Amino acid sequence: MAPTLRIGMLGLGNVGAGVARLLEQNRELIEHKAGVGLTLSRALVRDPRKARDLGGIQVELVSDPEAIVEAPDIDVVVEVLGGTHPAKDYIVRALRAGKPVVTANKDVMAEYGAEVYAAAEVGGVDVFFEASVGGGIPIIRPLKESLGANRIQSVMGIVNGTTNYILTKMTLEGWDFGVALKEAQDLGYAEPDPTADVEGLDAGRKLAILSSLAFLSRVQPKDVFTEGISRISARDIEHGRRLGWVIKLLAIGKELDGAVEVRVHPTFISAQHPLASVNGSLNAIFVTGDAVGETMFLGRGAGSFPTASSILGDVIAAARSKTSPQATLGCCCFVDKPIQDIQSVETRYYLRLTVKDQPGVLARVAGALGQAGVSIAHILQTPDEAARTAEIAVVTHRVVERQIRSALAALEAVPDVGAVESKIRIEA
Amino acid sequence: MAPTLRIGMLGLGNVGAGVARLLEQNRELIEHKAGVGLTLSRALVRDPRKARDLGGIQVELVSDPEAIVEAPDIDVVVEVLGGTHPAKDYIVRALRAGKPVVTANKDVMAEYGAEVYAAAEVGGVDVFFEASVGGGIPIIRPLKESLGANRIQSVMGIVNGTTNYILTKMTLEGWDFGVALKEAQDLGYAEPDPTADVEGLDAGRKLAILSSLAFLSRVQPKDVFTEGISRISARDIEHGRRLGWVIKLLAIGKELDGAVEVRVHPTFISAQHPLASVNGSLNAIFVTGDAVGETMFLGRGAGSFPTASSILGDVIAAARSKTSPQATLGCCCFVDKPIQDIQSVETRYYLRLTVKDQPGVLARVAGALGQAGVSIAHILQTPDEAARTAEIAVVTHRVVERQIRSALAALEAVPDVGAVESKIRIEA
């Protein structure tokens, strides 16, 4: 047994510094669990001369990735650069060179999972990515291992803290989207360009990773249907509240009849659902398996120390795999299941539209939906006397996406009916 | 690599039958993850001739444990007998004989964990017990592994479904304890003799297991302070509701100043706390670590299939450890921390007492508490004019148990004050 394993870290930003600090802070218990000493030997940075506060931790700063990726004096590689390039290339090369890799990189794992696993197989080592989804929440390993005997039926996750913060503020404080986004940006929860979060792309990448593990079939970001939260209004949230619902940006993966359904969109869920009270920047993943039933994992989805918690949990596993080689669990995607086209996905819908306040308009709306084969569960008309318009909120029974789309087109052609302002999916 | 691993199962009751069925149902994915074929070769039962419905699964039934425990043609042992004897003896012998053991046995792991781990070390194999706490919820492995880099500060669990069902009914339906217990018994959630559940003993054993893993120090059932729910009244629940609290039987483990505090008792928690909405027979464990912050694991804490989910997840790990031997993670209890005496534990308290409705009685109650060094946060008097008594509810600031006990003794000696009817701890 090697007395000490040498860690090379690619990147030393917020998360990387958290890893260095946490290793120092809890060194005794981490090394005990790892079964070996752990040295953070080297870290790749853009400018090694830049001053850094690492709390007195000694680590050699290098600007050349070759000093880590395939270096003979590095045993385990931790990748916290983020983004696909050049991170993917480094990960693949380190794995091929026989170094276990621990990564927080959702982009690489979602987009290039197959290539990464192939490299791990070549190198005879494993790749660990607990930190790539849900920050500090243990979800990757529970899905692969503890729940490994289940046929997973669905995963539903709140996996983006920015949008959950915004929707929480809109729900609890009555803020508009724009106000909540601005506040999130001021607090540093949202990027100056918030597109990846707000439009569901970040959640989509995480869903690709979760779904690949859950359904044992490769799911890629391009397979995921995404719809963002920028069109959600305070009015919809208020209607939802009256109907006993809460709105969340959910990343939903399901297996139905052998096909995988993957979608990210604003979703009304029952206020009683365990996900409904997951507020602010918390994340949670709700998993349903044929044996375990319903289970949920909740915690901090981001932040330097929560992410470092997952990374160092993986480093412990990587260290153990290094000192006593075992067959790697490897890629779980051994079945190749088709992806369900979003047009064929079936859900219930909430619709909101503004109509001219004319006799018979409610009947015409109901008639148009009925003719298009959309069955109505509830319909509610509220007049706005000043504007001489009325607002109509409709809750449908289950209907496939293709049908609701053609129904909406038909609806907008009805005299006195304006645009359909909201179309929000409902999960039981 | 052996083409097939042979499993010997000790016990074939409700859980054992679930394991057999689930293995059959999800054989393909389980074997893929295990990396080998799995055969349920033999099961220990009291009467092999008794008819059983195992859904057509073939398994040799034996009444002699020797056909499994040290049998050369058994590779992995699954123990689902329950109870300490003879289960502990079988587990220890199988481990010493070099067979990985998967067990659902909270009694053995809580009481004899040290002996079991020692046997595992002798045999060079690991013992797996995900099913011993929280049924289908992945919690043992996440605590040991994914959260392994954290110094765990506290675990707070709803780990007994029977009492959670009773308290939920009392809270949501306003039932009395006796009515709710009777219903739980009729539904089969509670045993004819409900003592182990109702008095917190079952939760105490699970807390001993969780705390040993969390604090890396052996905690035994005898170390755990337990107080049951049989004295909780609808009146207390109603008072709590007005104060924004919900009552739960919590298993609480904390490390403070190097000492471990372990206690099971009815507890008021904020209605906003994630544990507050864990209702019915659900279980949840709320874990706070220095890096991860707050995290929660929720799911079915009992039942044949949820428990089988955890057992077969462990069987997969056991199979992998068998085909590619690795250093076992082994016992985590490498520090020996003292157990905090319950008398020195500090919490806030809710007290309820009935007094004679006399002028000055409220002042006398407040005075007696103040003299005993108990600082009052809220105090509320409600007269019962018919009975010429008044009810006084008191919420204290933080106070150590020793002090509250002497304060209560002093209080009961005050003229016109009757017995203190309720004393319920409050967690933030």
Cα-based radius of gyration of chain A, to the nearest Å: 24 Å
Helical content of chain A stands at 25-40%
Major sheet attributes of chain A: 11 strands, mixed
**DSSP strand tally of chain A:** 17
Task: Explain what you see.
- The structure is a homodimer of 428-residue chains.
- In chain A, β14 and β15 form a beta hairpin.
- Chain A has helices at residues 14-25, 27-34, 87-96, 106-123, 140-146, 161-173, 177-186, 195-198, 201-215, 234-242, 304-323, 361-371, 401-412; strands at 4-10, 37-44, 60-62, 76-79, 101-103, 127-128, 152-158, 225-226, 245-256, 259-270, 282-289, 293-300, 346-356, 376-384, 389-396, 399-400, 417-426.
- In chain A, the strands form 2 sheets. In chain A, strands 7, 8, 9, 10, 11, 12, 13, 14, 15, 16 and 17 form an 11-stranded mixed β-sheet that branches. Chain A has a 6-stranded parallel β-sheet with strand order 3-2-1-4-5-6, with helices on both faces.
- With 428 residues, chain A is of the alpha/beta class.
- The first copy, chain A, is elongated and about 85 Å long.
- In chain A, 52% of the residues are buried.
- Chain A contains 13 helices and 17 strands.
- The mean pLDDT of chain A is 93.
- In chain A, α4 runs parallel beside α9 (201-215).
- Chains A and B meet through α1, α2, α5, β12 and α11 of A and α1, α2, α5, β12 and α11 of B.
Keyword list:
homodimer; 428 residues; alpha/beta; 6-stranded parallel sheet; 17 strands; elongated
